[in-house]
Write a structure and sequence with these properties.
- The chain has about 100 residues and is an all-alpha fold.
- Among the domains are: about 35 residues; about 30 residues.
- It has 4 helices and no strands.
- The radius of gyration is 28 Å and the shape is elongated.
Length: about 100
């Protein structure tokens, strides 16, 4: 056994290249672009930062959706309704 007979250890991004090869008939599709972008992201910035960026994107989308949903709500009406609610008095049975 000489030099070069041992197989090289696969790089972490090899699975993306393999996935891209599997999708070779769809070279111009969205999935190919997504896998290529993920491969580049994993090699350059790492999965931890990709995960953090995805989390921040999800939170920003949720906040934007919440703001758009609540945009037409009149807060004065809600606050008035909350102040008119009588407080619930809990009565615990006492032993006499």
């Amino acid at each position: 056994m000489g030099l070069g007979s041992e197989p090289l250890r696969p790089q972490p991004y090899d699975r993306f290249e393999k996935a891209c090869k599997l999708l070779s008939p769809f070279r111009e599709g969205r999935m190919h672009r997504l896998l290529t972008a993920l491969g580049v992201a994993s090699r350059t910035i790492g999965w931890k930062r990709v995960g953090i960026a995805a989390s921040l994107l999800i939170v920003a989308f949720a906040i934007t959706t919440l703001i758009r949903t609540l945009k037409g709500v009149d807060t004065g009406v809600i606050l008035t309704a909350l102040t008119e609610i009588s407080p619930i008095v809990s009565r615990s049975p006492r032993c006499a």
